Q: What sequence folds into this?
């Protein structure tokens, strides 16, 4: 039986790839006989272990969905706040990093058809290929910063991060300065474009380099603060950026000063969609202004003045979320419009936009994510050819959805898919973001899985290949460590659930699809031979308990009951003292299982209040019946089987993002919201604000807090947009932990007492580990302030 992601799969199924609405069986790790105590679980079978994906058929090219909801997580206003210019991080005194990157860089056997390894690495929002050297590419990751490779055409390119110590890793655009004949000048803009509720770093302006990325300057931090940048241009001293939130800004002195062009020079005020240059004329640009009645414009003098070119573009209304341009051979202009998350129109002009001809409209957005996941690029040689990409195909395996258009073909037959059967049975990851041509004439495409290259794009003879190499830009929002096998498992935005192949291999392996859910690991119930891991997809879909041996071989899988009010990422928490008990946080109800590690687990509702994302802690070493959850701006405590509100948090408290407690003293409990840390020493009866100096050292958006019980002194660690900071558990003076962790949003933390190490899941740079030096004091660092 196959059911939707929101249903329950048959317990006869092995772990599946769940891609937003369906499940597809994939190969598992190995067959191991089960002891009689776990006969209710389903062992991997040889047939399942050998199963492979069957490429999907090309989607129909003309039917357009108008009533499907977006697959992306909606933005939660309670988690949004104004951008700030982050404080300067502590300066490195030593040279030896104490944080170690663990990957995934990348992960293998993922949900796409790109042999030989089916690699994904995380979302890439923008591509800047070198104009004359196909080996050199720069990319801007959604939350992973800027990366460069100088050997892009080899099977495993080597990528080097460029902006790890700059204040924002959320990149919305990147481009070469085409007036620099040495091709050493690039400009990039910051903007939050993650499909994970648009979470990410602060939007703090632009980055600019004149030496090929050896050094990047941060420009426009104050005038461009909070601008969601989606297009950039550099022409010598003249810089331009366009923002979804503020319009078009221009500098004529290399970013020293900025002027809002919108509202002057013929360009109306309002948010702007796209900024596209004409390769044949360094002063010609195209843009569009959104609003109740979107309008299109062209500048012929480098952005000073703008001419409206809307006439002939139909279907423009308040539902338009994106308008994308591309200029190809002989200055031929193509425009794609997206309405309600789906492609609305494709138009072509051979007269610089003074007249437009409509083309067929392919079905590229079954997922309804066209506002973010759309791309268009005109062929650089053939004036009649254009390429478009959307979110996904409408049937398994739910990979990318891309098409080639031919304006010379008859209406009704202009678009042909360029994946699956029209690409040697290959297809890139879903949720496309950008397409560009490299210097060899191959098509580069970036999406929520990474970067891919299509050879021979004008025919059906080409295939898709990975250009991911060692890219490490995965958006990790949850993690857990299985002590039995010494393996970390993660839940990720859009890329499903992944685990280490072994503790030292940076190449991980994909084990479950859709958007990854929360993770829990039981290293006690079956130790030392096996351990349980609990995984799911969005909305707690495909919720399962999976058994792995101490050699990290999957042994069995058991479907678990769902709940009535799941969240996009539903928090789950195993009891610290009793691994038979699990707490699950719904939107408005909490649920408990008292037999989650048995053959037939049952979930029972406990009543309100529900829980905020990840804001739960359950059980101490001394009391299995204690639990705290954060809901809205309050903390609730489990007492006699009922959750009741604790004392009010101090003034200014907002949505609680995480809670933790001393495992040896459950009355000592901590909570965080986006910019405050709170402590109680009496079980929540009263709370104290212990934020101290943290906001003077870190950007805000505190996401995770972890209590570290250590012989050198108890410590509290907080994950922020600027990394990880620690303070003594009884104090409020904070220090940045370790060196080597990028300036990135840390979304989850787990302390491993057996190795005195802290693992961090980052929303854009994968998983990192910090090991505390024995006997040197847990607060030893290498920083000066």
A:
């Amino acid at each position: 039986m196959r059911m939707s992601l929101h249903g329950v799969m048959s317990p006869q199924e092995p772990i599946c790839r769940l891609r937003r609405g369906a499940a597809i069986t994939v190969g598992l790790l190995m067959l191991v006989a089960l002891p009689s105590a776990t006969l209710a679980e389903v062992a991997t079978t040889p047939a399942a272990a050998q199963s492979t994906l069957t490429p999907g058929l090309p989607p129909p090219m003309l039917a357009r969905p108008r009533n499907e909801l977006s697959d992306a997580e909606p933005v939660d206003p309670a988690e949004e706040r104004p951008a700030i210019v982050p404080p300067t991080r502590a300066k490195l005194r030593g040279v030896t990093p104490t944080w170690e990157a663990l990957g995934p860089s990348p992960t293998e056997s993922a949900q796409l058809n790109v042999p030989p390894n089916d690699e994904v690495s995380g979302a890439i929002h923008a591509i800047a290929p070198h104009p004359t050297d196909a080996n050199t590419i720069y990319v801007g990751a959604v939350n992973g910063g800027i990366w460069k490779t100088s050997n892009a055409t080899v099977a495993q390119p080597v990528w080097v991060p460029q902006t790890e110590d700059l204040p924002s890793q959320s990149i919305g655009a990147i481009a070469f300065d085409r007036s620099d004949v040495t091709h050493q000048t690039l400009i990039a803009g910051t903007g939050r474009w993650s499909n994970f509720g648009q979470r990410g770093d602060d939007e703090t302006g632009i980055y600019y380099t004149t030496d090929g990325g050896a050094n990047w300057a941060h420009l426009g931090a104050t005038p461009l603060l909070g601008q969601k940048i989606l297009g950039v241009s550099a022409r010598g001293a003249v810089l331009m950026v366009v923002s979804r939130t503020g319009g078009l800004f221009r500098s004529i002195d290399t970013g020293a000063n900025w002027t809002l062009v919108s509202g002057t020079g013929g360009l109306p005020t309002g948010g702007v969609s796209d900024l596209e240059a004409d390769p044949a004329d360094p002063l010609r640009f195209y843009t569009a202004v959104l609003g109740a009645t979107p309008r299109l414009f062209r500048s012929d003098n480098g952005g000073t003045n703008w001419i409206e070119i809307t006439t002939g573009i139909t279907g423009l209304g308040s539902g338009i979320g994106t308008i994308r341009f591309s200029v190809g051979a002989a200055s031929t202009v193509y425009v794609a419009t997206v309405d309600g998350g789906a492609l609305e129109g494709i138009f072509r002009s051979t007269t610089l936009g003074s007249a437009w001809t409509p083309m067929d409209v392919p079905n590229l957005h079954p997922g309804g994510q066209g506002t973010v996941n759309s791309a268009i690029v005109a062929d650089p040689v053939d004036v009649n050819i254009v390429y478009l990409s959307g979110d996904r195909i409408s049937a398994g395996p739910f990979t990318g959805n891309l098409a080639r258009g031919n304006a010379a073909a008859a209406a009704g037959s202009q678009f042909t898919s360029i994946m699956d059967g029209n690409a040697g049975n290959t297809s890139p990851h879903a949720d496309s973001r950008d397409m560009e041509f490299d210097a060899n004439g191959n098509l580069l495409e970036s999406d929520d899985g990474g970067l891919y290259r299509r050879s021979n794009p004008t025919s059906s003879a080409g295939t898709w290949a990975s250009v991911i190499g060692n890219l490490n830009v995965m958006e990790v929002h949850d993690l857990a460590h299985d002590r039995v096998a010494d393996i970390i498992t993660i839940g990720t935005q859009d890329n499903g659930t992944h685990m280490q192949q072994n503790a030292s291999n940076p190449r991980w392996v994909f084990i479950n699809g859709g958007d990854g859910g929360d993770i829990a690991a039981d290293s006690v119930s079956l130790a030392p031979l096996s351990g349980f891991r609990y995984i799911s997809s969005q909305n707690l879909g495909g919720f399962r308990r999976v058994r792995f041996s101490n050699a990290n071989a999957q042994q069995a899988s058991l479907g678990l009951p769902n709940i009535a009010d799941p969240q996009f990422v539903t928090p789950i928490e195993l009891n610290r003292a009793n691994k038979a008990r699990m707490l699950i946080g719904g939107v408005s109800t909490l649920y408990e299982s008292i037999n989650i590690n048995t053959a037939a687990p049952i979930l029972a509702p406990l009543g309100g209040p529900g829980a905020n994302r990840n804001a739960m802690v359950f059980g101490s070493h001394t009391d299995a019946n204690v639990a705290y959850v954060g809901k809205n701006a309050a903390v609730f405590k489990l007492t006699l089987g009922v959750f009741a509100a604790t004392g009010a948090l101090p003034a200014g408290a907002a949505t609680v993002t995480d809670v933790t407690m001393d495992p040896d003293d459950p009355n000592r409990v901590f909570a965080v919201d986006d910019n405050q840390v709170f402590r109680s020493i009496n079980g929540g009866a009263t709370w104290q604000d212990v934020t101290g100096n943290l906001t003077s050292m870190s950007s805000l958006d505190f996401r995770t807090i972890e209590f570290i019980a250590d012989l050198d002194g108890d410590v509290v660690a907080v994950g922020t947009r600027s990394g990880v900071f620690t303070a003594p558990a009884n104090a409020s003076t904070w220090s940045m932990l370790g060196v080597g962790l990028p300036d990135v949003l840390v979304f989850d933390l787990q302390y491993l007492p057996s190795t005195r190490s802290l693992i961090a899941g980052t929303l854009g740079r994968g998983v990192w580990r910090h090991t505390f030096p024995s006997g040197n004091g847990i607060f030893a660092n290498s920083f000066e302030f």
Remarks:
- The helical segments are 46-49.
